[in-house]
Amino acid sequence: MSFPITLDGLYIDGQWSAGDEHLRVINPATEALLTTVNGGDERAVDLAVTAASAAFADWSHTTGRQRGAILRAIASGVQARRERLMFVQSSNNGKPQFEAGIDVDDVIATFEYYAGLADAMDGGLDRMVELPSDDFAARVRREPCGVVGLIVPWNFPMVTTAWKLAPALAAGCCVVLKPSEVTPLPELELAAIIAESGLPKGVFNLVCGTGLAVGAPLSGDPRVAKISFTGSNAVGVQVMQRAAETIKGVSLELGGKSSLLVLADADLDLAVELASGGGFFNAGQMCSATSRVLVADELADEFLRRLTAKAESIRVADPFDPDVEMGALVNQAQYQRVLGHIDRGLSAGARLVCGGGRPADLSRGYFLQPTIFTDVPRDSALWCEEIFGPVLCVRRFATEQEAIALANDSQFGLVASVVGADVANAERVANALQAGLVWINAPQVIFPQTAWGGYKQSSLGRELGPWGLQAFQEIKHVIRAL
Length: 482
Ligand code: NAD
Hints:
The protein has 482 residues and is of the alpha/beta class. It contains 15 helices and 23 strands. Strands 3-2-10-9-8-11-12-22 form an eight-stranded mixed β-sheet, sandwiched between helices. It has a seven-stranded mixed β-sheet with strand order 15-16-17-14-13-19-20, with helices on both faces. The longest helix has 25 residues, at 97-121. It starts with 5 loop residues before the first strand and ends with a strand. The structure holds nicotinamide-adenine-dinucleotide (NAD). Residues 151-156, 160, 178, 180-181, 210-212, 215-216, 219, 230-232, 235, 238-239, 253-256, 287, 386, 388, 414, 458-459 line the site of nicotinamide-adenine-dinucleotide.
């Protein structure tokens, strides 16, 4: 499998075309150029929003079952091109093939789930509302909010897109999607599948390009009713400011600094497995990375010994190596950012237990060893900021109250994990954590039925589940005199 030398980066009103902005797309495992995507700018955004606005009248009046059928066709298309999509994900993002497979399955499950919710809308969009008066009758209905702009990052391309696109289409919205300029290839493949799904032209539009050339004008366009954004906090603020000019709805999925709590009665092997998975999956480039590992005093020494052994045994390799366990970071900028965090952590006095640099057997590609720190000062960037790389900070605690306070002491509140044998106690600890999702004795499994999003500066709104659908709906009440 390979890529053409250049790719059209615009899919607008059912037509592919090339824009004037040339995005060089790199394979992070080899640093070689994969292809050049000809993306767009403000003019392409204007055309895409015009096409989406024109398509809205018809699409918003389709039945739920009609929309459900198209979502299912997209899911089938993704299933049929599973191998190709895995290849594209690993080539463009650097993630191992087995992780790319998990991503593709997540996309399929998401489209199928929202197909079911779309079907169910035919059963009654309108519900009667009980009133304290016999003189009036009221009903409530949910309507699609209009043309929506979806802006996504590079760490789980296609998955972050599916979490927005499937509910937006199920709700009856028309879409302009802007993928990350770092990883446009998975979204280009997805767009090709959507183009064959039977979706009417103009309902889905794709504009590849940079944040400034495409994301900013999309956020400012007065015809766009809502922006759903996943990415960094710094850009989230810019999107919100731009959207504020036209009082647009905004959903934000931003950064995290999440904790994994290893309670005194935890199964140590399980705790090590979960800490390693939470910290090193996707080379730690996860908003949900459990980058703070808090361990009960009595287990701390043995836990650190086993976790270090585990980290040192992880096979960092080319994403297509059959034995790979951790792939490459996404690009040079991200690689340098993570190395900078490691350097600043050392300067701040943190103790490096293992890792911290390039694996000796890999001379090119953005590969980094799984890295563990202890004695990390609580006011250091390493402890407080999102690193977005395979770097864990391990700290011991004396009491569960202390562990909960340490976990909650963050500007973020996306997820958390608890490991402990006493389930009732683990549930109590979970309830005390300021996070949108808490796993107990479980890896970071995600279901389309459960919400995604967090407290504090991690999120505005929730994705997935019925909440993900409601994010693309307006509420209307109709009150009639009897
Ligand atoms: P980023 O903020 O740099 O970019 C995200 C998207 O915004 C890209 O498509 C980019 O082109 C676009 N963009 C950039 N400037 C813009 C502007 N001025 N206006 C509009 N759009 C603009 O993020 P990234 O580096 O691609 O991704 C990493 C970040 O994403 C991390 O902070 C991570 O925590 C976050 N993330 C969060 C979640 C979540 O669910 N909470 C999931 C994945 C990633």
